[in-house]
Amino acid sequence: MRHLVALSDLSSNEIEAILAIAADLKSKFQQGVREPLLPGRMMALVFEKQSLRTRVSFETCMTHLGGGSLMLGDDAGFGKRESIADFTRVLSAMVDVIVVRSKAHSTVEQVAEHATCPVVNGLTDLDHPCQALADLLTVREEFGGLEGKRITWVGDGNNVARSLAVGCAKTGAEFAIAAPEGYQFPKEFVGQLKADCPEALISETDDPHAAVNGAAAIYTDVWASMGQEAEEEQRKRDFADYQVNGRLMAAAPSDAIFLHCLPAKRGQEVTDEVIDSPQSRVVEQAANRMHAQKGVLAWLLGAKS
Ligand code: CP
Ligand code: NVA
Q: Where does carbamoyl phosphate bind (predicted)?
């Protein structure tokens, strides 16, 4: 039995396998075919934070695959009525896969430790592996491959950035991050990444204009993530020079695409002119959550296409 708690749980070959299943199922979906690879399987979603894309994409893809899903809200009492271990043992005795969006990364790790079915991270403070898989799928579709493609992250070295950096390292893409001092990746994270993937192409700078040079994709996310609301005003000041706007996009190759995991704070990390431009792929990227996660569910639950 496998879990997807962090993208670093997956080898390069496993990421390739998930993306291959995703691309195959997406192409069938576009031809009107919804292959019921997981008939009767049940997925439970346990979310401690808000979500549109993650919830809808998981529920939709499980339905397309012939299974069912249960969104467990506050009334299930996750982390409140009983221990996480008891909650998880009972839940995993009845469902086939559990998707957890938790405030602390250690919570999803705890669920994985006690579950008797696969557990998927639907976002924590440290990782957003399913987002990264959808992002890799999006870049691969756009450019026909990932090898040597530079993905430039402009902004906070947050959960989404970390998963994407790992995803790039494992697929031969280059990851460049432009962030102000104090918001770059922790040294231990970069050290671990290089230890796990000695061939990783990763660079860090505080200069967004230098970082977008040669980029295939420019990616940003909110400056204050869920749980960091109290820091929002300080972060607005700290990231003022890191907005992805027309001037920054003009410093990138003209065929570079713009990505954002969404939801976006328009006028802060990105301007309307960029997110609504022909270079923007944010809607396709969000829709790829559904396709990528079909790959995750089919791979984790051992369905054969
Ligand atoms: N990108 C993403 O995870 O969106 P939600 O927070 O809406 O799920
Ligand atoms: N970094 C953001 C991503 C939301 C999908 C957050 O954690 O709030």
A: 101, 128-131, 261-262, 289
Q: Are both 230 and 149 inside the same structural domain?
A: yes
Closest CA to 212 of 266, 161, 176, 166: 176
pTM over 0.95: yes
Give the nearest ligand 2 atom to 160 CA.
1
* Residues forming beta bridges with residue 174, ordered by sequence position: 150, 201
Task: Confirm whether 261 is a catalytic residue.
Answer: yes
84 and 137 assigned to the same domain: no
**Is residue 103 domain-shared with residue 143, that is, in the same domain?**
no
Q: Is 169 buried (19+), middle (13-18) or exposed (0-12) by CB count in 10 A?
A: buried
* 293 in a known ligand binding site: no
Say if residues 4 and 300 touch (Cβ distance below 8 Å): yes
The protein residue whose alpha carbon is closest to atom 7 in ligand 2 is: 225
The size of the chain, in residues, is 305
pLDDT in tens, 23-36: 999 999 999 999 99
